[in-house]
Amino acid sequence: MELKLALGEWSGRFDMEKAVCNHGFFMMSPNLWIPSTKSLRRPLRLADSTRSVPVTISHPLHHPFLLIQVHHSPISSADEAVILEQVGRMLRISKKDERDVTEFQEMHSSARENGLGRIFRSPTFFEDAVKSILLCNCSWKRSLDMARDLCLLQPKIALDGNARSKRKRSKCSDDIGNFPSWKELLAWSWVDEKYLIKQCNVGYRAARILQLATMFAQGDLRENHIAKLEQSSDPTSFETLYQKLLKIKGFGPFVCSNIMMCVGFYQRIPSDSETIRHLKQVHGKQNCSKQTIGKDVEEIYGKYNPFQCLAYWVELIEEYENKFGKLSKLEAANYHLITAPRYLGTRE
Fold first, then answer.
1. CA 46/CA 243 separation, integer angstroms
2. Among 41, 102, 136, 325, which lies 20 to 30 A Cα-Cα from 170?
3. Residues 163-173: tens digit of each pLDDT
4. Is residue 328 part of a domain?
């Protein structure tokens, strides 16, 4: 069956390719970008949050809507609403997101000329947060592998009994599922740190992932509160979430700033050695260091407040594509071959 997500008054400015292919998250499982059709394929949750269905998202030329092909039927009206909500989150289809893009492009001529300003994200906050953890202290290839292994794990721990049965019957060990939810990770006593490390090779990140899941289970983080926050422009509420995330062991400023970018708060730049390299090479800040990075990014990007992170990210993507070609043209099999993973958001 097919669903349509109206783009509204901004349909003439929406570019599916640019809305997806602007951050390393779009390359991470279970996302699959198809260059030949400029479409995105992945599983999405249904209303009961336990079952998933594969969908393909595309933007028919000159049409004021996104087309979502649901490769499963039938589904309920509640399921349809949840699918549309997830697609809207990934591609930032909302009045708040459109307002942010418009205001940012008014400040940033290059973003305006190239139609940039939407940063791709996941269907859920939890997936964004876990993937932000996967970006740290490793190669880009390993980040891709860890995400893939978590999606291979998901059918084994699915709360949907039919999905688990199907997995057991399958003769293929490479059946990619959805990205695990926090409920699935906590539902089984045997899914602990050692199990995640063995099954997904996530190393020390296992403890961080389970701690994050536990915060949702205990109500310290609430999905509905975060969803409301994503549609607000209250810096105090965003700062409260940032400080709460910082209290999670292993969630440093880089991870937390990356997560805040995903929720739509752009005043904090995820700064690391790649940021230092960029400022040295592009902005001539030869003395930039860990000690001066805060001052340097404020000096360069402060004029784009409250969209400093968007300005920084637009520069990174433009620099990367000038050197290595358009991200949207890459085949999935070649993602791991990219020689400059930091351009995609990774932190080694």
1. 31
2. 41
3. 555 555 444 44
4. yes
